[in-house]
Amino acid sequence: MTGPLVDAGTVPVWLRPLVEISGQVDSSTFTRFSPPRNGQTRPAAVLILFGEGPSGPDVLLLRRADTLGSHAGQVAFPGGGAEPGDADIVATALREAEEETGVDPSGVLPVAVLPELFVPVSRFAVTPVLAHWQTPSPVHAVDPAETATVARVALSDLADPAHRFQVRRPGTGYKGPAFAVDGLFVWGFTAGLLSVLLSLGGWEREWDRDDVRDLEAALREHDRETR
């Protein structure tokens, strides 16, 4: 089931457009990839946790440890694969967020479920769960072997045209949106999802889509600047 989990009128005004539209979009809004017909995917969920910080509405992100075997060093939403003990996909998202960032689920209100999105690299079928951080709790990298950094990033900073560009991988056909904000380099699945959410939520500002950078070169430059 996708769509709102609560009445849109019960969430902050700035979050209502996303809650209201959550039941009107399908996977093609977010990705061009379709699940394989044989159904051999792994269910997973990410928690897209919106809060209200000193700089206004923000979202919780983490950077994966550089030593991980897959997606090392990449910025992501808290999340992971479903486990047998999870009551549903919302429970998966909340459990993973608590395990990775220490967020207290009792202060989190799930507000909407977006369509399942297929990620070919991992073969995960990922369900994004939107939530409002009603009672913020301290967060941190619970296991440094898995998570390097946890951060609350202001939506206004993500929407700032100075922080936005596109990246490509020559020879692969890959091109997608990216962000360089608060010392984080966001690309891939997470950046694509954020880019669409900024638009759907009404936060997007005009930015230069013709600024296309080589991914590997952009990552090296970012590493040099943030050391």
TrEMBL record:
A UniProt-annotated Pfam family: NUDIX
Annotated coiled-coil segments of the chain: none
Segments passing through the bilayer: 184-203
Domain annotation Nudix hydrolase: ranges: 40-175
Cofactor: Mn(2+); Mg(2+)
Gene3D superfamilies: Nucleoside Triphosphate Pyrophosphohydrolase (3.90.79.10)
Alphabetic keyword roster: Hydrolase, Magnesium, Manganese, Membrane, Metal-binding, Transmembrane, Transmembrane helix
Any one GO molecular function term: coenzyme A diphosphatase activity
PANTHER family registered for this protein in UniProt: MITOCHONDRIAL COENZYME A DIPHOSPHATASE NUDT8, NUDIX HYDROLASE
Name assigned to this protein: Coenzyme A pyrophosphatase
